[in-house]
Design a protein that fits this description.
single chain, Rossmann fold, 9 helices
Length: 201
């Protein structure tokens, strides 16, 4: 399991850029470049490069990317779309693939929207799905996680909470997705292959 650490990626990106420039730039130009590489947009570029590297790695292995429906994720989608449009504008039909074409390809990428059966998480997941669709990415399906209703509790308080979930589960099934999996609340964390297999058993 790996993680895109913006600070680490930005530092590595700066070092690569400066190493390539040292041989061909004078001291003044190098200082200007170092100053330019300290700008906030350098982090966005560095994270995008890391993201592109991971997406490309799915040609040789299964890649699972876990990301929250936050502004940072949506900025990454915007950057992916902008990069794709720029390549198409400059190279036209010669552009074989970009991170965005890979994310749009249902044979290459399966996007799963994961939510809890509660109003706010479902609303956030709906907004994420709308952003994905605007980018031309159709989610493969939704996972409703940690559902008390699916666990069928018998305790009166838990039964009441489980009942409150049903409206959100129904909303997702009827309005949001063609494929929906509801995962019951677990008494133990499903860590490891055996526990994960039990979820589908």
């Amino acid at each position: 399991m790996s993680r895109i650490d913006p600070k680490v990626e930005t530092q590595a990106y700066r070092q690569r850029a400066l190493e390539g420039a040292r041989a061909r730039l004078d001291a003044h130009s190098l200082a200007l470049m170092e100053e330019d590489l300290r700008s906030p947009c350098t982090e966005e570029v560095a994270v995008f490069h890391a993201f592109s590297r991971i997406v490309s790695g799915a040609q040789q292995e299964i890649v699972v990317m876990d990301t929250a429906p936050t502004g940072h994720t949506l900025l990454l989608l915007d950057a992916t779309g902008a990069y794709h449009r720029e390549l198409v504008r400059n190279f036209g039909s010669r552009v074989a693939s970009t991170p965005l074409t890979r994310l749009r390809d249902p044979a290459y990428t399966k996007v799963l929207v994961v939510t809890l059966p509660e109003p706010t998480p479902v609303l956030e997941a709906e907004q994420l799905q709308a952003e994905l669709r605007r980018a031309g990415i159709e989610p493969f399906g939704w996972i409703i996680n940690a559902s008390l209703a699916a666990a069928r509790p018998t305790d009166p308080i838990l039964v009441q909470r489980a009942q409150a979930e049903l409206e959100q589960i129904q909303k997702v099934q009827e309005s949001c997705a063609h494929r929906v999996v509801v995962v019951p609340w677990q008494t133990e964390e499903p860590v490891g292959p055996q526990r994960l297999r039990q979820l589908i058993g």
